[in-house]
Amino acid sequence: MTSKPAIYLDYNATAPIRPEAREAVLRAFEQAGNPSSVHAAGRAARDVVETARRQVGELVGVVAGSVTFVSGGTEANALAIESAVASGVKRLVVSAIEHDAVAETAAAASGLPVAVLPVDTQGVADLSSLPEMLAGEDRTLVCLMLANNETGVIQPVAEASAIVRAADGLLHVDAVQAAGKIAIDFSALGADTLALSAHKIGGPQGVGALVAGTRANVVRRQHGGGQERGRRAGTENVAGISGFGAAAAAALRDLPQAADQGIWRDALAQRVRDAGGVVLGEGAGRLPQTLCLAAEGFASQVQVMNLDLAGVMVSAGSACSSGKVKASRVVEAMGRSDLAPFALRVSGGWASTEADWIVCGDAWLAAWKRIGARRREVA
Ligand code: PLP
């Protein structure tokens, strides 16, 4: 019996490691040395870290000095929010579709009031209430992600920045999902801080970065040594950082091809619509490789299991919430609570092919047909 190769379309959970990143990690493992040591091995390790810092900076158009390495997207978001709180913000505004890493950190931030910025039916942040939310004396931190992890919908960050700056607030942007999928220019976005994660762009898990502009004051989060210019103590994850840098360089190089996924994604979307399914956020600008679909009566977990049996790996909503089998908070925020239990996320990336998207569609349609036949039998 020949087994079919598995198809991985869950890049928004974790992208497969890029060969360049794998090589960089292995190379770093082969060389000893602590980047803080002054001898030759230490200097070589320092070079590895600083090369990666430059590569990660280039991915978002900043100089290396703006990049602080941390343990991942979650820590980058926490460092941004906690730094803003430590430097005197008195209120937080968080979009309704932020990842838990932002929403939960904001909720835990020294008991400060947190206002929720709503999204429209396409999943785009509605900025009309933002000036009112920022009115008054108290300095405010606004958190608006660049692209949503479940729908791929791109957010009006530059527009938000203009409003935030006019009110002398701060803007934090979670760019964990957008990085490597669309071009990012930190200055053009008008962000004060921006979070990145290596494993979403084909680097290793457990490493990320916070990019900070001149208006942001990044505070010390972990006490100990003076690593990362005193912002984050602890010997650097040299191999992980090296892999992150290599992945960032490869992702930047491959950006022109990333758009191809959009054609394949849209072809699958059409098949879903033809079969009576719904594509969430289809009227908005989206990451080219993310598809969030729903078909009433076809529970998210049942879809995931059926596709898994067919050798296709996708996820129900965000990876964190799929483990807990709960309805998608993002879909609910879009006013489609009726569809929230049925949402499925298909996300490709650097190694995905047109055939992957076609096979995924075949498997989804076959499962949807079976479910339909069963429902008709019961009725
Ligand atoms: N922000 C977004 C939008 C994400 O999708 C994720 C991961 O799913 C994170 C933050 C957390 O990143 P990490 O897994 O590197 O902590």
From TrEMBL:
GO terms for molecular function: cysteine desulfurase activity; iron-sulfur cluster binding; metal ion binding. Catalyzes the removal of elemental sulfur atoms from cysteine to produce alanine. Seems to participate in the biosynthesis of the nitrogenase metalloclusters by providing the inorganic sulfur required for the Fe-S core formation. InterPro entries: Aminotrans_V_dom, Cysteine_dSase, PyrdxlP-dep_Trfase, PyrdxlP-dep_Trfase_major, PyrdxlP-dep_Trfase_small. Belongs to the class-V pyridoxal-phosphate-dependent aminotransferase family. NifS/IscS subfamily. It catalyses: (sulfur carrier)-H + L-cysteine = (sulfur carrier)-SH + L-alanine. The keyword Protease does not apply. The keyword tRNA-binding does not apply. Pfam families: Aminotran_5. Residues 7-326 form the Aminotransferase class V domain. Its cofactor is pyridoxal 5'-phosphate. Keywords: Iron, Iron-sulfur, Metal-binding, Pyridoxal phosphate, Transferase. It comes from the Bacteria. This is Cysteine desulfurase.
